Amino acid sequence: MSRIDDVRALVDGAERTELPALAAELGRAMADVLARCATPAVTPPAPSTELLDVGTAAQRLNVAPSWLYRHAARLPFTRKMGHRTLRFDARALERWAASQHTRPA
Fold first, then answer.
1. pLDDT at 4
2. Rounded distance, CA 29 to CA 24, Å?
3. Cβ neighbour number for residue 10 with a 10 Å cutoff
4. If you write DSSP's letter for every residue of 94-105 in order, what string do you get?
C-alpha cells in the first residue's frame, strides 16, 4: 500500500464529525508539500580539502620548495590564494604524485 493509498483510506474511513479537523490537517500538509516542492534540493557541501603550504607540499613530493615555485603554474594541484601566496590541494597532490611514472634510465 502506497502513502497515497494511506491518505485515501484515512479520508474514506473518517467519521463525518472528524472531517473538518482532517481537512485542516490536510491543508497544513498540502502547504508543507508545496513548500518542499518549491525549495531547491540542498546539495551537500563538497568535502573540504586540506591546503598545504609550500614547505609541506615540497616534503610530500620530496622536492625543494623552489621546484614547486618554478613549476606551480603547470601543477594541477596548485591554488593561488593571493598575489604572492600559493597553497597546494593535498588530495590532488597525492593523486598527481601517484599518477607520475618513473621512467627507467
1. 87
2. 9
3. 13
4. HHHHHHPPPPP-
Segments of the chain scoring below 70 in pLDDT: 1, 43-48, 102-105
Q: Which of 86, 98, 96 is nearest to 56 (CA)?
A: 86
Q: Which residue carries 500538509 as its cell?
A: 29
Q: Which amino acid is at 3?
A: R
The three grid cell numbers given for residue 49, joined into one nine-digit string? 580539502
DSSP annotation of 47 reads: P
Q: How many residues does the chain have?
A: 105
pLDDT recorded at residue 17:
92
Q: Taking the mean position of all CA atoms in its chain, how far away is CA 38?
A: 21
Please check whether residue 28 is in contact with residue 62, taking contact to mean a CB–CB distance below 8 angstroms: no
